[in-house]
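Reminder: ligand-aware prediction takes two inputs, not one.
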Amino acid sequence: MKIILATSNKGKVKEFQAWIHEYDVHPFSDMMEPFEIEENGATFKENALIKARAVFEKLDDKSAIVLSDDSGISVPFLEGEPGIYSARYAGVGASSQANLDKLIQTLKDKQVQRTPAFYTAAIALVCDRGEFCVHGWMHGEAISEARGHNGFGYDPMFIPEGFTHTLGELDENVKKKLSHRARALELARLVLKSLQ
Ligand code: ITT
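Here is what comes back for the chain with inosine 5'-triphosphate:
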């Protein structure tokens, strides 16, 4: 079964390709010219479905399954920010580094060294048999400094529950076991099996 990833985020492509071995997995840019998808949903779920539908509509081979991920980090102390705006926290088109720097600076400005935070991932699957969406979460703490270079995005400032190091410092196998995306993917695997 062919799975097309509806994402332009290289960190996500790397994780999905490493974690889904049993299927033939390709980023959508292998199948078509990359194009902008307007993520104007109000929730992770809506945005994940918007991305997967947009790519499925452009596919010639409708026997493939399109998989998308909409994700982000939420800090309750900041009333849930950046949440669904994680990719554009420092402005539309902002780099991962600029977004990370902004969240660190926001915490520093409020004199917060560490505070509870969580990642959410919504994974949508769109194919000729219908549309599906599952979620996964990872709880922990956001700190007001960047440590380590593993992972991507906000990982250098996120310490998962039960650990003392950030995801930037921890081995990538840790993220594979407990991340929001890994947990959502466990559920997505059940949907994929039922579609076989
Ligand atoms: P696509 O929409 O093309 O998939 P994107 O990067 O714009 O790529 P999102 O809209 O889902 O993806 O935004 C997710 C942002 O949240 C992402 O850019 C990271 O900054 C952050 N994020 C999500 N999952 C993460 C993870 O596992 N580790 C670190 N940061 C993550």
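The radius of gyration is 17 Å. The mean pLDDT is 96. We will return to this case in the review session.
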